[in-house]
């Protein structure tokens, strides 16, 4: 099942790894592709799970239509992937960065059909944009600067972007230059129109109304030094709004946890999924548990 066709005719590239075990669906961040999940996907498949990771429309090996870069459509694409994979129940959906938005909108728009666990990793949920009622958010000017940088010189913009993404500095080198270059190449697979439109979508979509739809055990993981998706406006707010969720904060960690903290992230996801296998994953109560 390398390609599925969505309800509007867009072809989505899907990797389907592992055996007939419990399904886990991995949703990548901006501006990457499903390949960014490879380390975790391999480990989960080797642990007996059926792992699906797909390229968001406009990115990686999927089609690049002109329209459809809004979260209602993204959630519908997720629903179409789930249907094409013939998944009817007991799935875990895990979204990184803007992929957390697909998780949230799928839970509300599609009633969380077939989902028994959810995870938000470095996610943009519930609301990135700074507004009077969201003072911890990011100024609109930042998103405007991102768009301007991409339009001026997209390859050069992403050279700098991924240094912050992975927390690479003069002294700090949590990943090799090869990893930064690899992420850059993934980003450059995307079309210009999808790259800009998706950035606008994750920067302006308010997922606060979607939080009540999280009626399954939900794990939230975020780095405290995330300069790309600030933790106060996202993970900490999401943990307060999602009943019974668990927030794990990676102290001093940047945004690109799938690479900078890949072993810890994999271990935390495996533990969470195992709790789901034993039906013991609901963390209980309305107050989230926070682990640093």
Automatic annotation (TrEMBL):
Gene Ontology terms for molecular function: chloride peroxidase activity
InterPro entries hit by this protein: AB_hydrolase, AB_hydrolase_1, AB_hydrolase_fold, Epox_hydrolase-like
Say if the entry is tagged with keyword Oxidoreductase. yes
Q: Which UniProt keywords apply?
A: Oxidoreductase, Peroxidase
| EC number of this enzyme | 1.11.1.10
Q: Where is the AB hydrolase-1 domain?
A: 23-261
Q: Specify whether Phosphoprotein is a keyword of the entry.
A: no
Q: Which PANTHER family match?
A: HYDROLASE, ALPHA/BETA FOLD FAMILY PROTEIN, NON-HEME CHLOROPEROXIDASE-RELATED
UniProt lists the family membership as follows: Belongs to the AB hydrolase superfamily. Bacterial non-heme haloperoxidase / perhydrolase family.
Q: What is this protein called?
A: Non-heme chloroperoxidase
């Amino acid at each position: 099942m390398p390609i599925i066709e969505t309800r509007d005719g867009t072809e989505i590239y899907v990797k389907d790894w592992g055996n007939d075990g419990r399904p886990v669906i991995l949703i990548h961040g901006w501006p990457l592709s499903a390949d960014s999940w490879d380390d975790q996907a391999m480990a989960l498949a080797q642990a007996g799970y059926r792992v699906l990771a797909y390229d968001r429309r406009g990115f990686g090996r999927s089609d690049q239509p002109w329209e459809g870069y809004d979260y209602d459509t993204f959630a519908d694409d997720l629903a179409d992937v789930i249907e094409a994979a013939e998944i009817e129940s007991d799935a875990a959906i895990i979204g990184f960065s803007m992929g957390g938005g697909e998780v949230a909108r799928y839970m509300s728009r599609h009633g969380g059909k077939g989902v028994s666990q959810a995870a938000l990793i470095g996610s943009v949920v519930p609301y990135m944009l700074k507004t009077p009622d969201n003072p911890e958010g990011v100024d609109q000017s930042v998103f405007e600067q991102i768009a301007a940088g991409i339009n001026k010189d997209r390859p050069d913009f992403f050279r700098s972007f991924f240094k912050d993404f992975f927390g690479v500095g003069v002294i700090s080198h949590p990943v090799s230059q090869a990893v930064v270059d690899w992420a850059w190449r993934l980003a450059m697979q995307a079309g210009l129109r999808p790259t800009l439109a998706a950035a606008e979508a994750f920067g302006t979509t308010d997922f606060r109304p979607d939080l009540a739809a999280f009626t399954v055990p939900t794990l939230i993981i975020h780095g405290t030094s995330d300069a790309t998706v600030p933790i106060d406006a996202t993970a900490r707010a999401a943990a307060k709004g999602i009943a019974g969720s668990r927030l794990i904060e990676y102290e001093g960690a940047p945004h690109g946890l799938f690479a900078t903290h890949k072993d810890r992230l994999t271990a935390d996801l495996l533990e969470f999924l195992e709790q789901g296998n034993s039906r013991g994953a609901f963390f209980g109560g309305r107050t989230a548990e926070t682990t640093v």
